[in-house]
Amino acid sequence: KINGERLWDSLMEMAKIGATPKGGVCRLALTDLDKQGRDLFVQWCKDAGCTIRVDKMGNIFARREGRNPALPPIVTGSHLDSQPTGGRFDGVYGVLAGLEVIRTLNDLNYETEAPVEVAVWTNEEGSRFAPAMVSSGVFAGVFDLDYGLSRKDQDGRTMGEELERIGYSGPDDASHAAHPVGAYFEAHIEQGPILEAEDKTIGVVTDAQGQRWYEVTFTGVESHAGPTPMNRRKDALLGAARVVDAVNRIGLKHAPTACATVGMMTVYPNSRNVIPGNVFFTIDFRHPSDDVLAEMDREMRAEVDRIAAEIGLDCQLEQIFYYKPVKFEESCVAAVRKGVEEGGFSVRDMVSGAGHDACYLARVAPAGMIFVPCIDGISHNEVEDAKPEWIAAGCEVLLHAMLQKANE
Amino acid sequence: KINGERLWDSLMEMAKIGATPKGGVCRLALTDLDKQGRDLFVQWCKDAGCTIRVDKMGNIFARREGRNPALPPIVTGSHLDSQPTGGRFDGVYGVLAGLEVIRTLNDLNYETEAPVEVAVWTNEEGSRFAPAMVSSGVFAGVFDLDYGLSRKDQDGRTMGEELERIGYSGPDDASHAAHPVGAYFEAHIEQGPILEAEDKTIGVVTDAQGQRWYEVTFTGVESHAGPTPMNRRKDALLGAARVVDAVNRIGLKHAPTACATVGMMTVYPNSRNVIPGNVFFTIDFRHPSDDVLAEMDREMRAEVDRIAAEIGLDCQLEQIFYYKPVKFEESCVAAVRKGVEEGGFSVRDMVSGAGHDACYLARVAPAGMIFVPCIDGISHNEVEDAKPEWIAAGCEVLLHAMLQKANE
Ligand SMILES: NC(=O)NCCC(=O)O
Ligand SMILES: NC(=O)NCCC(=O)O
To answer: What is the pLDDT of residues B295-349, one digit of tens each?
Structure first.
């Protein structure tokens, strides 16, 4: 029913904004390129007859009116920001699948009972500004507005300043209370290897893993790499290196479901012949069980303390982001299943390894997610890829699921 | 005999150029601040009646003429560049101690037989541009001029371009053949803890450790930290972390004399929720025995190969800098000893842990070094410090040693 070619073409058009040499995208949140992507999306939505609202977190809502404008809208969406070396599908697929649903409804002159909206959530990736999903988090009341607007990038610029700068600091309250959501659906690439390995086209997402993110700073003593004897060193990088290995051990111990990653590390002063005096790094823990996540937390803290003590380092450790495992609402999961049946696609249930805006929306509205495979399970990588038929199938399921909810 | 207060005041005046909040100095090679430091030194030398020569590597020679201008000059000196978070003494002490020798000779109207010169060697630290001591190396014929001028910083700017930019690309050949040196002395802070711990004022440097510097790049697969199972990862940072620990083990195995350091590490794409696909890091090995240094090299290569294989990483490993342990010339060591006796200072023999321009000069001229203590053995750190009486004592010894050689 949906037009897979039109959807694919729009994805490829959007992928030109911030295109990278290896076929990926670098469109970091609230940069000029993010603004270009937003402008293009807004233009496409206006062309499709939608009205546009922007809230104080820069979240964009494109609305196709329903027969009963008083009903809360059925919303879909995702994000347009990317990782520094991101792909052409992560996030943008969910946004443009939503636009394709609206375009399809227009083609059919189909009037839904409830309004239908496509949302773009600001800074989902959490790469330029930590944490992830900060603006859907504000919308869901998990974070307050001040917290959201004061998130800083590595250069000290805040989300609030950057929203102003690119012209996406809107007038509306960034809150589900001001803008109730009837139901929320999100289509996304799996970003993992399971669907492709099992040759399934659709993943019905029933749950999402819990996450804990940390920032650690080790401080030792900067000193000369030549005349400073091994036994007089307080090498902050040696400490950080041992934590990287410990984090990996903790991940392996709770595998196959746990994930444990050090993704970011900054060494200071970062000079070849200076023993590093200061190292900043991050830890990312995930598990579908909140208890195991708490156990990983305890194990990691013990390791960090032990390692800091054995080298004589000062340690600052802060958990900057935490959310419990998410269970998606039964009626939305059922609507997705029904959509899959109607399309006749191969399917399996999935637990999402990544966080998604849907995880926060699930706190304030019935929510569900649709996964499609990606090549080799690779995401957060310029080579991220997906087959056009997967992309079309997920959008088809999204249309069906939204129509069920919009006409309930 | 020398004027300790004048020397100290000049050191403090120079330390204003690139002063850092914690009392140190950031005067990276061939930056605008390096130019300011050079300009000040040149002005002071002109005020002291010296003539100035600059060679193609930007090495500066300030000359006080001797009774016999045909004799090769007795040269002293060191460097004005610093680490990113460097101190007020590393390098600049050797330069300004040389200036103080000339000022003292002027005060006394003392005419030496051979000319006396103070040299400033470009980019000794090897921090902005690797390797260390590149311009004294070119002067000594260890590197050719093209190699020296083509050294690049992290932003891809070359030493040649930067010398032009700050106006210190001189006309003279950067070669001992074009400018023979009668003898070379260098005063320097120890940069290690031994002299202070043993309450000695002067270290007579008999040897310098050998060094090997490496660059390593590990390449794995960038992927999403959430949905990528532990057993499907090729985490470049995990590999680098294990090498940091292995390098430390190799250093400890050959302690107390060995040093082994990873000082620099850059993680790519450096995003919290991305498994690092690429990590660049450096290794710095030192030992007074060339055989042990070769053994450390073999051990490290075996570890790097093992670690890369166990994680499935591609590995590029390059040794970018190597020099054998240095033995300083007997007559110069004797001249330093004699200077210590005349001053009546407490003394011990030392092996230099750091590399110095004197190590390369030793290949083309009789050379010797004088160490003075530094507080807590700390160097390559903003808090680097020394007592005025140590600073004065080292300069006194330098004066005596140079006069012996200049009047031989
Ligand atoms: N989907 C996605 O890549 N989200 C980023 C937040 C996370 O790391 O889970
Ligand atoms: N003296 C000094 O800090 N030299 C830098 C070269 C080295 O790392 O040994």
So the answer is: 999 999 999 999 999 999 999 999 999 999 999 999 999 999 999 999 999 999 9
Alpha helices in A153-273 (DSSP H): 159-166, 194-197, 236-253
How far B222 CA lies from chain A's nearest CA (Å)?
Answer: 6
Determine which helix (DSSP H) or strand (DSSP E) holds B276, and give its type and residue range: none
A196 annotated as a binding-site residue:
no
- CA of A133 from ligand 1 middle (Å) equals 8
Mean pLDDT of chain B: 97
- DSSP one-letter code for A376: G
For residue B267, list chain A residues with Cβ-Cβ distance below 8 A: 263-266
d(C-alpha A33, C-alpha A128), whole Å = 13
Separation in Å, CA of B74 to nearest CA in chain A: 28
Summarised one tens digit per residue, pLDDT across range B235-263 is 999 999 999 999 999 999 998 999 999 99
Q: What's residue B225's pLDDT?
A: 97
> HSE (CB half, 13 Å, CA atoms) of A294?
5
pTM exceeds 0.85 = yes
Q: Locate the DSSP E strands across B292-405.
A: 314-323, 326-327, 347-352, 367-372
Q: How many CB atoms lie within 10 A of CB B151?
A: 22
Closest-lying ligand to the alpha carbon of B132?
2
Segments of chain B scoring below 70 in pLDDT: none
d(CA A364, CA B370): 73
By C-alpha distance, the chain A residue nearest B266 is: A266
Q: Which residues of B touch A259 (CB under 8 A)?
A: 225-230
> pLDDT category, A294, cuts 50, 70, 90?
very high
Contact A237, A267 (CB under 8 A): yes
The span from the first CA to the last CA of chain A, in angstroms, equals 20
